[in-house]
Amino acid sequence: MALRPLDPFFFILSLFLLFPSPSLSDSTTQFCSAGSEYGGVSSTRILIKGGTVVNAHHQQLADVYVEDGIIVAVQPNIKVGDDEVTVLDATGKFVMPGGIDPHTHLAMEFMGTETIDDFFSGQAAALTGGTTMHIDFVIPVNGNLVAGFEAYENKSRNSCMDYGFHVAITKWDEGVSRDMEKLVKEKGINSFRFFLAYKGSLMVTDDLLLEGLKRCKSLGALAMVHAENGDAVFEGQKRMIELGITGPEGHALSRPPVLEGEATARAIRLARFVNTPLYVVHVMSVDAMDEIAKARKSGQKVIGEPVVSGLILDDHWLWDPDFTIASKYVMSPPIRPVGHGKALQDALSTGILQLVGTDHCTFNSTQKALGLDDFRKIPNGVNGLEERMHLIWDTMVGSGQISATDFVRITSTECARIFNIYPRKGAILAGSDADIIILNPNSSYVISSKSHHSRSDTNVYEGRKGKGKVEVTIAGGRIVWENEELKVVPGSGKYVGMPPFSYLFDGMEKSDANYLSSLRAPVNRVRTEAT
Ligand code: URP
């Protein structure tokens, strides 16, 4: 498409090239390419023909017609006048809702450095892998939630796909409680995260968690926990250093699955005591998964989120003699020994765990080298935002463990339901946002840091081959990934506010009333003179 100086896109691109954001590397402009009004190869009308349209509840052979960023029709043999309609042939391919990643950390300041992927580079990478929305974690500024939210509004200004926020709670006082209400009622926040690990920085104690759970319940916001026993992790780290174990393997040895199981069980029991739903982020071990399974079996509303690294990798990498290789696998909770990943896959396929995230939190090899002499200083985090959809399709659909409809449920729809934005997101239905992928089940790929779109110089899936490739990504009605070409524009992504009181809160008033009426009547004691 020819670019004329008066095209709005040309204008945006020129501004961007003249005044590049200091936080963007060369790769930002590398992704910008010719397009029209909305950036990217933007057609306001797109017809996807002949594919298998997959939703979480159903799949069918059908066409999908998109106008102005919204899906208008999903049915066989759609006919439209051919004026200005971009037609995509999806014969033999799957047409599915774009992925939604519930757990990312872009431009996050953490462990003395900042993640190498910011909102632009992380999202650009995500789009090439078929993810069209993510939910990132706002980290408060000195405990202040509103200041944290504003900082993340700034960080996300260059977004090229839709995104939402969870907000972390790192201290407790009246101001925090008030700000939680403000964020829920005015800013589209419906979830708050409590870190039970990272003693001395993000970690909260049980009294704070209890206050937070009560406040979440009253606001209809979902409480999320990073479940590891931070005090015991601290002790485990000291133990490793005393034993002279200072390399990346010390990371895994210092925080074994039992500490994840303990914290998961504790958070679940406290949420039960308060009677509020709970979401456990990055479930990495059988120990944690078993606690979630037990709670769900007893009727408690607990959501378990495994992440791709925990499902697919094992911890042998942490013992690699090359520090650069070993350190790239350092994340918390740690990647576990062989066996945990397959058990988590089984739990996902049977509904014990509900959705898949990435915990994309990337640091390059120079940043990881901050912990060359002490594993406690290796910035925690791995990549996955670009790889999640491909790896889950290849590992779980490709092996027959789950169906295409299950794939849509665990990578997109369930996230949209839990965070109360379904069916705007997470579905190919008339009226939904046009966030759509076309996946070719016969197309293959090899993952490498040489060709990935993240800014990191390493990739924890280096060399991995797979089948089932996202050939087209449509985000907000724009074709942003096609023919191996990424066409995105900084600033084109939208913040998606998420309303409180998702389906997880249904019936809560009745269960609270049942609890009250189940209490044995108090004793009316008559005071005598002696008492
Ligand atoms: O290692 C990790 N997971 N880094 C990101 C912060 C977190 O715990 O999610």
TrEMBL record:
Q: Entry's Gene3D superfamilies?
A: Metal-dependent hydrolases, Urease, subunit C, domain 1
- Keyword annotations from UniProtKB, A to Z: Hydrolase, Metal-binding, Signal
Query: What's the protein called, per UniProt?
Result: dihydropyrimidinase
Q: Which Pfam families match?
A: Amidohydro_1
Q: Which residues cross the membrane?
A: none
Statement: the UniProt record of this protein carries the keyword Signal: yes
Query: Where is the Amidohydrolase-related domain positioned along the sequence?
Result: 94-480
State the needed cofactors, names only.
Answer: Zn(2+)
- Recorded source organism is Camelina sativa (False flax)
